[in-house]
Amino acid sequence: MTSKTTASSLLDFFFRPGMPYALAAIRIATGAMLAYIHLIWMLRMEAFFGPNALLSSEFIRGLHAEQWKWTYLANTESTMLAWVHEVVALTAGGCMCLGLASRWSIPIAWLATLLTAHRLAPFLFGLDQIVLMLTMYLCIADSGSVWSLDAHLAGNKPPIASWNNNLATRLIQLHLCVIYLFGGLGKLRGWMWWDGSATWFTAASYEYQSSSLLWIGSVPTLGAIATHATLFWECSYSTLIWNRWTRPWMLAIAVLVHGGIAIFLGMITFGVMMIVANIAFIDPLAVRRCCSLGDRKV
Amino acid sequence: MKPTRDPTELRECPPTWKWILLILVSLHLIAVVAEPLRFFSQSEFQSSPEFLAIRRWSAPYVEWLYLDHGYFFFAPNPGPSHLVAVSKESVQPQTTSQVAELGLQLDRFATVFPDRTKQWPRLLYHRYFMLSEFYNNTFAPDRLLPEDMADEEFVVRWKRDRIRYERLQSSLSNSLSRSLGAERVTLHRVERILLTPEQVLRQAWRLDDPRALVLLEESPRPLPPLGPVAPSVSLPMLGPGVASENEGIPR
User: Fold this and answer.
1) Range of A141's domain?
2) Angle at A73 between CA A68 and CA A77, to 5 degrees
3) pLDDT in tens, B152-195
4) Is A292 inside any structural domain?
5) Does residue A275 lie in a domain region?
6) B131 contacts chain A (CB < 8 A)
7) Cβ <8 Å between A125 and B1
8) Is A128–B81 a contact, with Cβ atoms under 8 angstroms apart?
9) Is A7 within the bounds of a domain?
10) Is residue A9 a part of any domain in this protein?
């Protein structure tokens, strides 16, 4: 391949116009999850923000003193201001889900959630990483042009295949590959992922358990197969997901692994969002066909 | 993936913009891998200089956009969980012999987090779970052993970590004493060690068995005389009351 064709393939990979259906599905789920995340913060506002917070503003400022994690929420003790911030963030997440004023609601939801994340960093986990990642990339796409109130108000015109939809999709795909690759490489360092006991020790964690998976201890071979399948799937995801023959298998295992995390390890929000992120690897027109089938059945 | 063509209008990116955007996208993708590369390439000896340089150079972007993750999910191994038990007195509510006999009784404390009966929905519970893991990760002992004092760099790092831990303790204590209506509270770090299939399936230990709880100490213990090397991961066969090294934090 000449350098000219390589450059042209690279430009085509990132900037070929793409339809917004897969991104719209991701937008709906991510917006709903953002709204839910902020609703949960609001359940215990006094514990998370203000003068009686578990982690005082002073502590957070000290924690981030040598980091670029500025948020105005770490410079105020006002619970009222935090309430306003969270209501704005929840509303923006709701609008993002409904596709209302998407051009504005998605960036506002992302920025508000990011500022909250810097204020409450020690409370965060994988869910926040994946939701902020998806919202950041949705900011550059036209995901509100279908399956949205914006589209409805504009008369449901056919969407435009646009370069920024494809760019957002590619960035989500590549970022997801990085997450899985390093997730897998991290596990390669652990002996439990090699001797096949990791599934048991994950399932037997009282703090994580939501549904019992302890029966797997009486079938150790099955536990070991699940452990090794997770390890090899995670390590190979970033290469095999790009091949059209292996992609369906990679996506099917993603649903099984993350579905298992959601059902058995009590992280339903994280499990769901990881499955949602994998929609980026489904052809947008296939996503539209799936949703059309759903419409017809209804 | 195959090109997605639909009989609709196409919006192309202007050719000049494509090259500018490609450079920006490349820089962004370097920032995305900057933290995992730094995180994976550090050892007790050094951090890989080129990855450290990339991470430092991209710090404002990586940190503010919340891209500074190592993606260490349940890695390198699923580890024990950590809880924070809060007592209204400065002493723990059980004697050492009671703990040895009955295990650690969490209901004797004023409050414990995470607690799925008090923190609901599940996402709220998980927020408290992450806080208790953070508290344990931030821990720095209240003093150093004489053999550790010889390493100046280690002492400087310990002092810095200890200050951070004390500030965290103070912040949590202030908030919890107000919410519990106590003059002052004491925080205890508790570890729930991993149970083997043998213990759960044959010896019928429940996952919340108090014998699996270990009250972690605030002060370091002098190393025992040379002998057999202890395992680095706390497994329940060590029995209650035995603290251990904390491995991979599942976040």
Assistant:
1) 17-297
2) 135
3) 999 999 999 999 999 999 999 999 999 999 999 999 999 999 99
4) yes
5) yes
6) yes
7) no
8) no
9) no
10) no
